[in-house]
Amino acid sequence: MLPLRNHWALFGGAVEPGEEGHGAILREIQEELNYTPTQCTWYHEAIFVLPRRENRVVRKVFYKIPISPGDVETMILSEGSDMRLMTVAELTRLPRIAPWDLSVVLMHAREETIFPDGW
C-alpha cells in the first residue's frame, strides 16, 4: 500500500500472484466499485522511488477506462471513503491528492498538447 492516508486517488490496487496487470485492474474495479468496465486499455507506466526512511521503489501501471455519469450512478463504493467525477481544475485545487495519480490525469487531459502526433 502506498503511504497516503486521507488523499484522493484513482481506484486500483496490487497485482496478485498469477495475475497480469489488465486482469488485476478489472478485478480491482469490480471489488472496489462493483462495476465491470466495457473497455480497459493500458495507458502509462511509471516507477517512483519514494523518499522514506528506506527508499521504496513502486511501479505504477495506469489503465484508461472510459466511463459516463450513468456508469457512476451504477457503481457501489466498497473501498475508500468517497468517489465522484471531477474536472482537472477541481483536482488541482484539492489539498490532498496522490501526486502520481494527479500527474497521469494531467497527462491524459493534455494529450493533444503533449503528444500532438499521437502515441
Question: Describe it for me?
Answer:
The chain is an alpha+beta fold and 119 residues long. The protein has one domain. It contains five helices and two strands; from the N terminus they run αββαααα. A hairpin with a 5-residue loop joins β1 (41-50) and β2. The longest helix is centred in the N-terminal third of the chain and has 13 residues, at 21-33.
Total of helices: 5
Share in helix: 25-40%
Backbone CA Rg: 15 Å
Q: Could you say how many structural domains there are in total?
A: 1
Secondary-structure element order, as H and E?
Answer: HEEHHHH
Strand order of the largest sheet: 1-2
Q: What distance separates the N and C termini?
A: 31 Å
Low-confidence stretches: none
Number of strands: 2
Strand percentage? 15-25%
Mean pLDDT: 91
Structural shape = globular
* Biggest sheet overview: 2 strands, antiparallel
Q: State the secondary-structure class.
A: alpha+beta
